[in-house]
Amino acid sequence: MPLALLRRMRTKRPDRGSGLRMPLPVGAGAFSCEVLDPVGQALGGVEVTVTETRGAARTVARATTDPHGLFLATLEPGQYTVLLTGSGLQPKRFTIDIAHGQCEPARRVQMDPSQQLELPPPGTWLFDPPHTAIRFIARHVGMANVHGRFTRFRGGIYIAERMEDSRVEVAIDASSINTGNNTRDAHLRSADFLDVDNFPEIHFASNRFIWRSGPKWTLQGPLTMHGVSRSVSLDTTYLGAVNGGYEQELRCAALATAELHREDYTLNWRNMLARGIAVVGPTVKLELDIQAMYRNHETPTPPE
């Protein structure tokens, strides 16, 4: 049933007592809800999952609320669990009973903000190489994906008093590229690709920390590769801070992804195709799985 039908048939916002007036399939009932954000405004994009409570707990409906915060599903009579989830929000779960011909007023559900992970203390945090991975995925022209990683790098995070003023810097040894194939790796190090003899380092330094929602941040800054600098955005999820490791030192963790366009760095795949060289495609997905140690005079040096 289109959500537009719900918008046409619902009563005005101040008075929902009369509910919906809509035709129902024979033998069915309906469930509808209006989802509001923590300050009471309509909230679109919240995922609503309706699951049977008996038997195999089969999911019978799943969709996101429309821009007006509305969701509607026609259901067979029975009992169901409704789960509402959204980025930066605490999940909401409740049970509904649907009867034949039932079409009650839309249930209003106000979401609550999720509990924020405690941000790491201000100071310098150094990457722990054995527990940090810098990976990439590229589409091989006409074939499957190529997965690889850089095995040598250094870097860290400076956490400022205001998180928005923090910085991240990483320097990658370009010759450490590894895709599990020696011939391909030698080609990637050559002048056709990374040209590691002339450009031995790939470097990123953030200049903006932008909070998105919940634990999600965007880090912006120049990435220098193959002698060319371009601004990139890292979509980052902060995973929290704990005590643990070599000597129970304080450490934090995050996941970050970015999409790079090879031609931005003068790596011209079309020219190489014209020369008959089979290469990866024009875009590369970069993934950083970071664990960093708080740096002070007692912090142990991570092993190589």
TrEMBL record:
- Which intervals of the chain form a coiled coil? none
Query: What organism does the record attribute this protein to?
Result: Streptomyces autolyticus
- Please give the InterPro entries that the UniProt record associates with this protein: CarboxyPept-like_regulatory (IPR008969), Lipid/polyisoprenoid-bd_YceI (IPR007372), TTHA0802/YceI-like_sf (IPR036761)
Family as reported in the entry's similarity comment: Belongs to the UPF0312 family.
Annotated signal sequence is none
Q: Which stretches make up the Lipid/polyisoprenoid-binding YceI-like domain?
A: 124-293
* Protein name, per record: Lipid/polyisoprenoid-binding YceI-like domain-containing protein
